[in-house]
Amino acid sequence: MNFKAILRTIVFLALLFVMLYVGMNNTHVIDFHFPIAGTTAKAPIHASAALIYFGVFAIGVFAGMALHTGGGKKKAKE
Fold first, then answer.
1. Which residues, in sequence order, are bridge partners of residue 48?
2. Which of 3, 17, 71, 74 has a 20 to 30 A CA-CA distance from 30?
């Protein structure tokens, strides 16, 4: 395993720790408004702050993964 992979793993684990820490300290219920999406403009999502934070984090991780592994042109083997 190279140094870059180890560093990425450490950074990702640090992000997971921050997510866990925020989730443990924000257990109250909130109203989540995101008018650009359309559905929450009329009826906001009423859920735990930690659950909403986790959802936003998970969407960000999947978006980053999709952009990182995205469909670029494959190099032809010679």
1. 29
2. 17
